[in-house]
Specification:
Radius of gyration of chain B: 24 Å
Number of domains of chain A: 5
Largest sheet of chain B: 5 strands, mixed
Distance between the termini of chain B: 65 Å
Number of helices of chain B: 8
Oligomer: heterodimer
Shape of chain B: globular
CATH class of the largest domain in chain A: Alpha Beta
Strand content of chain B: 15-25%
Largest interface: A-B, 32 and 37 residues
Largest sheet of chain A: 5 strands, mixed
Number of helices of chain A: 25
CATH topology of the largest domain in chain A: Rossmann fold
Structural class of chain B: alpha+beta
Number of strands of chain B: 11
Strand content of chain A: 5-15%
Shape of chain A: globular
Strand order of the largest sheet of chain B: 2-1-5-3-4
Radius of gyration of chain A: 27 Å
Mean pLDDT of chain B: 90
CATH architecture of the largest domain in chain A: 3-Layer(aba) Sandwich
Helix content of chain B: 25-40%
Distance between the termini of chain A: 54 Å
Mean pLDDT of chain A: 92
Helix content of chain A: 25-40%
Low-confidence stretches of chain A: 1-7
């Protein structure tokens, strides 16, 4: 979809100095200032799923009917973060009124928003966010608790700029870091700045980025490569996707700066093919960057040449592992290799290769612009800057958040996330994707950082955060993640290939009530073996969900093993269904639906389940309109 | 040359040697399955784990591919290293319970059986180390076999699990197989060699003198291709098995000698 009303034909190709970029940036800003109203419809994955693209199309249609002299800047922007309340539409009034944040907008609302707010400057009250603690409606996003304590670096321009337009990015200061780096800094200065920032890899490893760059710069090789790892595959995680689709130029800018610092002439972005929009947006952004002279031969008329290619991944989770990713880039099967010889020395095609995650690259422009010291002033002792997390699971405000390192898990879950859904009791939060650990209530005041989470038996990972409530069975959850990893294990090395299915086999028995006395010990032995003997990080961390749940929820395992009971009442067969006589109206719905005729009772009389016949299928529980069936 | 201390025994090795090579030099045995000088750097079986001491920071590494770059301290017999190797062996035994080779190695390691059940219906009695695949591709140049499936359901097989047209039945895979899973079967009735379990068959050349079976025809063809000799000439040379050829040669030498005596 093309944007309307704003002149797009202002690209002046080949920027070669800071002054030229400033002139262009100014030019773009002037075109829109000051009375131009903006309509920003969220095009993030959550809002798109709720129909935001249709809403966007209606805004464009509405704007087309206006007379020539009224200009409206309609944009479909990247993820705003508060996916729970999508689709989100933000109206920039262009005057002192500031911005108005509308949530849960539906197609019929568009005409009203357009008439009242865009043209009339009035607020549509019912579409505003209501603060559940105060009951007050708030107008702008800054007043919403979800956004209040967030701090955005990687996501700064996400949700503000049109990701398909390089002009929009330049207008908010985009590519100024690249221009600064190439015209005023030498490669060593850049690396020093990144080292000073103490930025650590955001993909999960947490390796100091600056040190990686220096090793790669110092390594001997005719050709050096930089790679952006966009093979995000954790269930429930979409941090990298949000950046790739919401602000692709920030990644490209980071990569060009990195390539210049390291001495690389070719870059690759490895994106999973399940993210077609990411591929499209990055492709378009690369094209625009080439046209403007930020990519290609003699960037900004210097002697530095660098270009980026996109490679699509076939969806193997293990290809997010750096050596497997490089094997895949080379056209081979995506399997990891031992890292005793580092990829910064012998990586892609045996040449020095620097691989960083999407979020890491997206942090670079800000570090160059504001300095390493500024970045390292945010965060904790060992973890600097901010981190993007995907808050999912049993939480009120599902969404994408960026927080300063050192914020506690409690602040993230309760202040930003709004607490557990349906006000159930909190049970655990799993951080770090499928091979992260489950952290219980008593550690909720732990500040978020690489080392802090590792100490708890979990990890930072790439930033997944799954909240679980009292109805979640921790044995079952460990089984779920292990099953995922079993399917994603490449099978190259023995411990991962054989160990995961063996552990899964034990967990399956336990959740069926067939646990044995030494099962926990066996699980711990296997888990330790996996972490010590596996070839790559997938195997090394695969046991985390099991080991952490045994550590923190041992009782729950023991209930399954020794008493054949599932305290969370999730494991089928390890709890009963019973009819509460006082709540039962004798409607007969359960009786009719029971597939094994285990329910009996006269009409209008309380019914009864025969536990001998009952197969615990749960159909009666789902069908009862009065909530008269209980899990015990 | 860097010094490697293994369980207290010190040896000097060439830089970039592996710990396993150093251990052999020191006369210390480390069990290893997928290690083969022809195919270096596999490190898939994980049986050769040892404990590396990096100034107090200890870490398990596979000795078959860990390069020695400076002075290195390694423990083969530490509790942690033994436990890890035992764990790996137990998993392998669950995967390949019928392999005599594996059982023998296990008993040498002091592992007498596995606590684990069989959890997959995929290929049994194969430890999926991948040596056969690599030797077929890199040394023989045929790529007749490869991995199919992933994770625990992985198996070594031919395309579509049918007898492969690319297989020359050379038997290199059977030679490198560390657990004796791949076998060469000779079918006397048809005069063919079969590579089991891949079902690939090829006719064997027969010694014209004694009738003994020699290499398979496609192997002879491939040799011919590689050394570029005349096939007819090669055929003449390949008429006899090495033994008969030696006998013939000896006979002709004797004939010459007899003639001289005359």
């Amino acid at each position: 979809m093309k944007r309307t009303n704003i002149d797009e034909s202002i690209l002046s190709p080949h920027i070669s100095s800071p002054a030229e970029l400033e002139v262009l940036s100014e030019k773009i800003r002037k075109l829109k200032a000051p009375s131009t109203k903006t309509v920003r419809v969220c095009g993030g994955p959550g809002c798109t799923a709720k129909g935001s693209l249709e809403i966007y199309a209606l805004f464009i249609k509405a704007a087309e009917k206006l007379p020539e002299d009224i200009k409206i800047d309609n944009k479909c922007v990247g993820c705003h973060g508060l996916c729970e309340r999508g689709p989100i539409v933000i109206i920039g009034s262009g005057d002192a009124n500031g911005e108005i944040f509308y949530q849960q907008v539906e197609e019929p609302d568009v005409a009203e928003i357009f008439r009242e707010t865009v043209l009339g400057g009035r607020i549509v009250e019912r579409l505003l966010y209501e603060d559940s603690t105060t009951g007050k409606k708030v107008k702008s996003s800054e007043e919403i608790p979800f956004y209040k304590t967030q701090e955005r670096i990687a996501l700064t321009q996400n949700g503000i700029i049109d990701p398909t337009s390089i002009n929009d990015y330049i207008a908010v200061g985009g590519y100024s870091a690249l221009v600064k780096a190439l015209t005023t800094m030498n490669p060593e200065d850049i690396i020093d700045e990144v080292i000073k920032s103490e930025l650590r890899g955001r993909g999960g490893g947490g390796f100091p980025t600056g040190r990686k760059w220096r090793s790669c710069r110092d390594a001997e090789g005719d050709q050096k490569y930089v790679i952006c790892n966009g093979d995000e595959g954790d269930p429930g995680a979409f941090m990298d996707r949000a950046v790739m689709e919401g602000n692709p130029h920030s990644i490209i800018e980071g990569m060009v700066i990195g390539a210049y610092a390291i001495g690389a002439s070719q870059g690759f972005i490895y994106v999973r093919n399940e993210y077609p929009l990411s591929v499209e947006r990055l492709g378009a952004a690369i094209e625009q960057a080439r046209e403007t002279g930020f990519l290609g031969r003699n960037i900004m008329e210097s002697s530095f040449s660098f270009d980026i290619r996109i490679n699509r991944g076939g969806g193997a989770f293990v290809c997010g592992e750096s050596t497997a990713l490089m094997a895949s880039l080379e056209g081979r099967v995506g399997e990891p290799r031992a890292k005793y010889v580092h990829t910064v020395e012998h990586g892609l095609h045996d040449q020095p290769t620097n691989l960083n995650n999407v979020e890491t690259w997206a942090n670079i422009p800000s570090i160059i612009n504001k300095g390493g010291e500024w970045f390292s002033s945010i965060g904790t002792e060992g973890s600097k800057g901010t981190k993007v997390f995907c808050l999912v699971g049993k939480i009120k405000n599902t969404g994408l958040v960026e927080i300063p390192m050192g914020m506690t898990l409690r602040q993230i879950i309760y202040d930003i996330g709004g607490g557990v859904k349906n006000d159930k009791a909190f049970k655990a939060v799993q951080t770090g994707g499928p091979s992260g650990g489950c952290i219980p209530e008593q550690f909720l005041d732990t500040p978020v950082g690489f080392d802090e989470l590792t100490r708890l038996g979990s990890m930072m990972g790439s930033g997944g955060m799954i909240v679980m409530d009292e109805d979640t069975c921790m044995v079952n959850i460990a089984k779920y993640f292990l099953n995922f990893l079993k399917g994603e294990s490449c099978g190259k090395c023995t411990p991962c290939r054989e160990g995961i299915p063996q552990m899964l086999h034990i967990l399956e028995r336990i959740t069926k009530g067939e646990g044995e006395d030494d099962d926990l010990e066996k699980l711990e032995v296997l888990g330790t073996l996996l972490s010590e003997a596996s070839l790559c990080a997938l195997g090394k961390t695969a046991a985390n969900p099991v080991l952490s749940t045994i550590k923190y929820f041992r009782k729950e395992y023991e209930e399954h093993i020794y008493h054949q009971r599932c305290p969370a009442k999730e494991c089928r067969g390890l709890f009963f269904y019973e009819i509460l006589p006082e709540a039962c109206k004798g409607c007969g719905i359960c009786l009719k639906n029971c597939p094994v005729d285990a329910i009996s009772g006269e009409k209008k009389e309380p019914h009864l389940i025969d536990q001998e016949i009952c197969t615990k299928c749960g159909i009666c529980f789902e069908k009862c309109p009065f909530g008269a069936i209980e899990k015990v | 040359m860097p010094k490697v201390s293994i369980d207290g025994i010190e040896v000097e090795v060439r830089k970039e040697s592996t710990i396993l090579e150093a251990a052999r030099k020191a006369g210390i045995w480390i069990p290893a399955l997928c290690n083969n000088p022809v195919i270096p750097n596999l490190a898939t079986c994980r049986l050769c784990l040892v404990e590396l001491d990096r100034g107090g920071r200890k870490q398990l590494v596979t000795s078959c591919n860990y390069p020695v770059r400076g002075d290195t301290v390694v423990s083969v017999s530490s509790e942690r290293a033994r436990r890890a190797r035992r764990g790996v062996m137990e998993l392998l035994l669950a995967r390949a319970p019928e392999s005599e080779e594996l059982k023998e190695l296990a008993s040498r390691m002091g592992v007498d059986g596995t606590p684990y059940p069989t959890v997959t219906e995929a290929q049994r009695n194969c430890i999926l180390c991948g040596l056969c695949i690599r030797v077929c591709e890199e040394v023989i140049g045929c790529s007749a076999i490869g991995f199919a499936g992933r994770g625990v359901d992985r198996s070594v097989t031919t395309p579509f699990r049918l007898a492969s047209e690319d297989c020359i039945a050379c038997g290199a895979c059977a030679v490198v197989c560390p657990v004796g899973t791949i076998q060469i079967r000779i079918h006397e009735d048809t005069g063919e060699a079969e590579i089991s379990p891949f079902k690939s068959r090829a006719k064997l050349l027969v010694c014209e003198e004694c009738g003994k079976r020699m290499v398979t025809e496609p192997v002879a063809f491939q040799v011919n291709d590689r050394v570029k000799i005349d096939w007819e000439k090669f055929r003449k040379l390949a008429r006899l098995c090495p033994e008969c050829r030696r006998k013939k040669a000896a006979e002709s030498v004797a004939m010459v000698a007899l003639k001289k005596e005359d």
